[in-house]
Specification:
This protein is α+β, with helices and mostly antiparallel strands. The protein contains 2 helices and 11 strands. It folds into 2 domains: about 40 residues; about 170 residues, no CATH class. A hairpin with a 6-residue loop joins strand 1 and strand 2.
Length: about 230
């Protein structure tokens, strides 16, 4: 009725194995369910992380309103060959005693950074040997008045600020425009420009020693910014 002894022993051996297997299966299933249902998650991915360096881009416009030089035309934003804008009048209209040549130019900042420093630095003035005179020095004769007028969007002009007053070209030194005339510092990327007038004068009492001479002098504008 109850089976043989060997059968009962065999059944007793099988029961613990079945229970152990069932327990393991339940544990695995429980862990799976628990792991899926009990873990809350939240995340944010910043998908557009970029950075751009600021820029100062100087633009100089000549007296005709169309001739331009850009700092960005040169290597690393330094253009060293803007020969199309001549601030001393050139050779087309030679100087005579008591004559003055005015050359207006404008400077603007088409970059996005604010100009904190603005200078004009002259190179050494040199005078060629004249066709009819060799003893004088035209660099020691010609005088420069440099003035600036802030111009907002090509609109109303202000009172000119005199930056040099009858300085001989040979004595011209670095001009700190930002300190001497803060209103003559162009705003960033606004279309604002600053008008500068180079007024070169030959004194009335000039003698014959400079006849036929020609002067040459580099002038370097420079921005620094934040």
């Amino acid at each position: 009725m109850f089976g043989s002894r060997s059968t009962r022993v065999r059944r007793a051996r099988l029961v613990p194995i079945a229970l152990t297997t069932a327990a393991l299966s339940s544990a695995v299933l429980g862990a799976s369910v628990t792991g899926t249902l009990s873990a809350f998650n939240a995340s944010i991915t910043n998908s557009s992380n970029t950075a751009t360096a600021g820029s100062l881009v100087m633009k100089e416009t000549g007296p005709d309103g169309s001739t331009q030089c850009l700092s960005s035309s040169g290597t690393d934003n330094t253009y060293t060959d803007c020969r199309t804008i001549n601030k001393y009048g050139g050779t087309a209209t030679p100087f005579i005693p008591d004559a003055t040549h005015d050359t207006p130019v404008s400077i603007s900042n088409t970059g996005v950074s604010t100009v904190t420093g603005f200078t004009l630095t002259p190179g050494t003035c040199t005078a060629t040997t004249g066709a009819t005179a060799t003893s004088g020095d035209l660099c020691a004769s010609l005088e420069l008045n440099l003035s600036c007028v802030s111009v907002a969007n090509g609109g109303a002009t202000g009172t000119p600020v005199l930056l040099t007053n009858r300085v001989k070209l040979k004595d011209l030194t670095r001009i700190d425009i930002a300190t001497a005339a803060p209103d003559c510092v162009p705003a960033a990327n606004s279309g604002d420009s600053v008008k500068f007038v180079f007024s070169v004068h030959m004194p009335a009492g000039q003698d014959n020693s400079v006849q036929g001479q020609t002067v040459s002098q580099n002038l370097t504008w420079a921005f620094t910014g934040a």
